[in-house]
Design goal:
The mean pLDDT is 95. It is elongated and about 70 Å long. It is mostly helical. 67% of the residues lie in helices and 0% in strands. It starts with a helix and ends with a helix. The chain binds iron/sulfur cluster (SF4) (2 copies).
Length: 368
């Protein structure tokens, strides 16, 4: 569980907010808070993961610093979220990666890149990597298909396992029961709120980011990132169907479905993270928790580099640089995937679960 100091501070704030209730229309956190009269560890962890860090309640609050009450809800809930990520990490021995997460992400990505370079150069003659290859199967002349796919499948299985165990721990910790995970209306409602980023909308004005002004920029940039990532996953799945069902080997034509999906997704994944980094750079540090800075920045940089290396590979795939660019791109992809359960990516899993829980609570409350 998060540190006693952080839990006490969250409980103090929730008690003040529950009496004040000025912010109840801002997001899901305040209505969920109002269903409670006291706040134990499980409530505060749930509310922390329900918070989208829109910062609306900080700028609206008459008790925010320098007031003696020092109410700073986004800062405390951000720090609490990070602590909860550590607590639910599996295997727990890797939870320490959340401590200096930006550094950990950088080192793991470099190690992944180094490992792929060593594997490829151990497998192939260097002249194969540095010469040009064109036509169907060109990528696999540099890195054999099985060497590319088998480790990726094993890694994907481990990532799904780690995220699944983390999700199960989170669900139990916030008081969820297993059968409630099959609550289809709540799953759909939570999915709708997650896909729309309802609670970054500020009820229509947008969130207060990077400063006190209202703006939809963060929401749209997050959409570009999320849907860009989704399109890239779809492109990879389509390419797998081409390979295994139709026996068509990559690289595919520029107008083919996997390349079009991958290019559009890659552009989203370039503009979204770059814009979010720019907003973060300009953002007011007062409602932020210092401890989450490295995690947020490290994840965005890694997403950006993964996308950039993929697009450069696409543009230069018919040149002698293709082999080196393929190795670099796969290095970033491996670094990104290995760190999924130990970085910012987990917020997607826990926040969705918190939104599902909120949908269930709201439903129970409206029928009681
Ligand atoms: S953040 Fe401030 S204004 Fe909003 S409910 Fe809490 S105490 Fe009231
Ligand atoms: S920062 Fe935004 S989402 Fe989080 S509690 Fe405040 S108003 Fe709600």
């Amino acid at each position: 569980m998060p540190s006693a100091e952080l839990l006490n501070e969250a409980q103090r704030l929730m008690t003040i907010c529950n009496a004040c209730r000025y912010c109840e229309g801002f997001c899901a956190v305040f209505p969920a808070m109002e269903l409670r009269t006291k706040f134990d560890a499980e409530d505060t962890v749930y509310l922390a993961n329900l918070c989208h860090n829109c910062r609306g309640c900080y700028y609206a609050c008459q008790y925010a610093p320098p007031h003696e009450f020092g109410v700073n809800v986004p800062q405390t809930l951000s720090a609490l979220r990070l602590d909860s990520y550590r607590d639910f990490a599996w295997p727990h021995v890797l939870a320490g990666l959340f401590r200096r997460n930006g550094l950990a992400l950088g080192l793991i990505s470099l190690a992944s890149l180094g490992l792929i370079v060593a594997l490829v150069l151990g497998w192939q003659d260097a002249s194969v990597v540095f010469s040009s290859h064109t036509g169907p199967g060109a990528f696999y002349e540099v890195i054999p298909y099985r060497l590319m796919v088998v480790p990726a499948l094993v890694l994907s299985g481990l990532i799904v396992l780690a995220l699944g165990i983390g999700l199960a721990r989170f669900w139990r910790a916030i008081g969820g029961r297993w059968r409630e995970l099959a609550d289809l209306p709540a799953l759909a409602r939570g999915g709708w709120d997650a896909l729309r980023l309802t609670y970054l909308g500020g009820g229509g004005h947008g969130c207060n980011y990077p400063d006190a002004g209202f703006s939809q920029r963060r929401r749209w940039l997050h959409h570009l990132t999320f849907y860009g990532f989704g399109l890239d996953l779809l492109a990879t799945s389509t390419a797998a169907v081409y390979h295994h069902v139709f026996a068509w080997q990559a690289p595919y034509p520029y107008t083919s479905l996997p390349v079009v999906l991958g290019t559009v997704g890659g552009l989203g994944l370039l503009v979204g993270p770059a814009g979010l980094l720019w907003l973060k750079w300009r953002s007011d540090p007062r409602p932020a928790a210092e401890s989450v800075w490295g995690m947020d920045v490290g994840f965005l940089v890694l997403l950006f580099l993964t996308s950039l290396s993929g697009l450069v590979l696409l543009a230069a795939r018919e040149t002698a640089a293709m082999g080196s660019l393929l190795v670099i791109h796969l290095g970033f992809v491996a670094g990104l995937f290995v760190t999924f359960p130990y970085g910012k990516f987990v917020h997607a899993v826990y926040r969705y679960a918190a939104l599902v829980r909120y949908a269930q609570e709201r439903n129970r409350n409206s029928t009681s």
